[in-house]
Amino acid sequence: MEGNRKSGFAALVGRPNVGKSTLMNLLIGQKIAITSNKPQTTRNRIQTVYTEERGQIIFHDTPGIHRAKNRLGEYMVTVAERTLSEADVILWLVEPSGYIGAGERQLAERLAKADAPVVLVINKIDRVKKEEILKFIDAYRELLEFADIVPVSALRAENTDRLLDVIFKYLPEGPMYYDEDTVTDQPERQIVAEIVREKALRLLNDEIPHGIAVEVERMKERPDGRLIDIEATIVCERESHKGIIIGKQGAMLKNIGTKARIEMEELLERRVNLRLWVKIRKDWRDSDSMMKNFGYRMDEL
Q1: How far apart are alpha carbons 112 and 183 in whole angstroms?
Q2: Whole-number Å distance between alpha carbons of 227 and 269
Q3: What predicted TM-score, i.e. pTM, was given to this entire model?
Q4: Cα 280 to Cα 80, 198, 214, 232, distances in angstroms
Q5: Within its chain, how far is the Cα of 133 from the centroid?
Q6: Which terminus in the chain has less CB density within 10 A, N or C?
Q7: Is residue 246's pLDDT more than 90?
């Protein structure tokens, strides 16, 4: 990797559920950020690293910017705002729609004040006809002056090479921040906790996922190195939620555990013995100390 290399930070922003985590996972070629169709899936700033001949992109997948209703919500919005202020280029992900809601307009006002160039990324183009995309581009151009506009499909890996070209165009020249083998700054323990939360998000009904967190209490490799024992607790806010998470005769908790264990084994490249519990912690989303215990980086506030 000789010559003038570029290195910098690309912030992924947008309303919840536009595919930020899916796109980031695709670009780095590995699943780090969890995905689901539920709002507030991403709660922390997830940092991943993409390295190639041209240099290095450090992606920041931010929580969706929304109106905060509790301390956790305030934390998520603060993390997203801070990420914008540190970015070299901002990727605003939107869905292909002619309707631009109040949330998008509010975000456009915030991005208009950003120092970094803003690239509009229209995701999920596999869902619409190509001629319709031009209408969506025109609608968004009325909101903000973009440095570039790139339509993509994260699901089908369409036009993502073009997106990488655009990102590198706006990064400064300079040395790499991480070595070539680094993919994320997330500790394995945190990724494991997020895997459990993702499976719960996907399997539980809509109201419960907002009120759950996952704490990994034990993660220990056996002496022969072939198996890891992991003990984790799913934390919820109500007794009624605990019953739903456990399910009839423990069926739901077992299903969450099975799906999580399979993915953990792929991540850790060895067998996993996973044990899950469910505990109630009322109003944990308004408790700084409990949020810190569950992996939220309160020092970022």
Answers
A1: 31
A2: 9
A3: 0.68
A4: 28, 19, 12, 14
A5: 25
A6: N
A7: yes
